[in-house]
């Protein structure tokens, strides 16, 4: 009844969902002291999703190892449970295809109410960096130092060699004879 108040009025008075919700509660213990934790989780899931039957909710809960949040995420995304052929259906004459699924309006209303919001991502504002006029021009690959071309490959850092006065020219030694293998 709690979720039916938050849903749009066109979906709040749906008799098929109420019928399944009543059917969902049949055959279970009525005393709240004898309920286990899993039955309380199933009750909360029955309140959130009245159009889905109890057995399917319990199968989803078992598939997520008892995690209610993961079960709600699975149900909202529409993941289907593969049923074992050995397990019998409750109603063999009624197919599961005719069961109503959540409409997009119901899904949005449920997500607005019970969806988790990541606080860190909701506080940051992502804006693209605006390129400046200098960056938009093609960067020159020629580097200058003291009005002389130093490098044409575009290296940012170059090695500056100091010139000493009265420095003799470098002498390259020649081998006295041709090198032969030992």
From TrEMBL:
Region (Disordered): 1-37
Keyword Ribonucleoprotein: no
Domain CUE: 37-80
Pfam family, one: CUE
Source superkingdom: Eukaryota
Listed InterPro entries: CUE (IPR003892), UBA-like_sf (IPR009060)
Chain intervals with Polar residues compositional bias: 1-13
Gene3D superfamilies: DNA helicase RuvA subunit, C-terminal domain
Gene Ontology cellular component annotations, sorted alphabetically: cytoplasm; nucleus
Subcellular location as annotated: Cytoplasm; Nucleus
GO MF assignments: ubiquitin binding
Alphabetical keyword list: Cytoplasm, Nucleus, Ubl conjugation pathway
Protein name: CUE domain-containing protein 2
Organism listed in the record: Schistocephalus solidus
């Amino acid at each position: 009844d709690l979720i039916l108040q938050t849903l749009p009025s066109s979906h709040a008075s749906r008799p098929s969902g109420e019928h399944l919700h009543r059917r969902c509660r049949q055959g279970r213990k009525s005393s709240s002291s004898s309920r286990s934790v899993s039955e309380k989780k199933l009750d909360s899931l029955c309140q959130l999703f009245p159009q889905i039957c109890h057995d399917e909710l319990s199968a989803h809960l078992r598939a997520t190892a008892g995690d209610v949040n993961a079960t709600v995420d699975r149900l909202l995304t529409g993941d289907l449970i593969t049923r074992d052929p050995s397990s019998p259906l409750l109603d063999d004459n009624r197919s599961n295809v005719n069961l109503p699924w959540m409409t997009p309006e119901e899904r949005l209303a449920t997500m607005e109410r019970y969806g988790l919001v990541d606080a860190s991502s909701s506080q940051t504002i992502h804006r693209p960096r605006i390129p400046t006029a200098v960056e938009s021009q093609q960067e020159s690959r020629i580097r200058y130092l003291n009005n002389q071309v130093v490098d044409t490959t575009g290296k940012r850092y170059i090695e500056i060699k100091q010139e000493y006065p009265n420095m003799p020219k470098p002498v390259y030694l020649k081998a006295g004879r041709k090198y032969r293998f030992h």
